[in-house]
Amino acid sequence: MKISPLREQFSTLVGDHFEVWISEGWLALVTEALTRLLKEQGIAPALRVDQIKQKWGKLCINGEAFTERALAIAEEVADSSSRICEICGAQGEPIKNSRGWVIAVRCVKHFDAREILVPDESHERARDLQFDSAVPK
Ligand SMILES: [Zn+2]
Fold first, then answer.
1. DSSP 115
2. Mean pLDDT (whole number) for 33-58
3. With contact defined as beta carbons under 8 Å apart, do 82 and 52 qualify?
4. Ligand 1 mean position to 85 CA, how many Å?
5. How is the chain split into domains, by residue range?
């Protein structure tokens, strides 16, 4: 996913090292979260967002100087993300790997074992989310 539009739209909110590690299906959710956090930044100017990623099948927003309300926004969005397909944004279900860990959220159409993947953060920053394959049971 290209992050430069987000960087431009939320320039006062995102830090210099802003990273995004998600697929397109969650873009609307991310935009909504950043819009709400930007509003909160009006009250808490030190508020920053440094990283947005998928962790255990949930949208995870990391940053600095999060207020209670900002934490609540992040939590609410994480909760919503667990029911939204990461690929297309349709209604989805958490997908577990063979160890029982939620590694993805997918709709019926995108539920394909060959596509159930885990992020590999060793890849270059600010590129599309990269995956290693992990076949679930
Ligand atoms: Zn889908």
1. G
2. 96
3. no
4. 5
5. 4-133
Distance CA 17, CA 33 (A): 18
Q: Which amino acid is at 8?
A: E
Are the CB atoms for 52 and 125 separated by under 8 Å? no
pTM, rounded to two decimals: 0.79
Sheet holding 14-21, edge to edge: 14-21, 48-55, 58-64
53 φψ region: left (φ > 0), alpha (ψ -120 to 50), beta (else)? beta
**Ion ligand 1 — residues with CB under 5 Å?**
85, 87-88, 90, 107, 110
* CA dist., res. 84 & res. 90, Å (int): 6
Q: Residue 29 Cα, ligand 1 centroid: separation in angstroms?
A: 14
Distance 88 CA to ligand 1 centre (A): 4
Looking at residue 122, its pLDDT comes to: 37
How many other C-beta atoms lie within 10 A of the C-beta of residue 119? 18
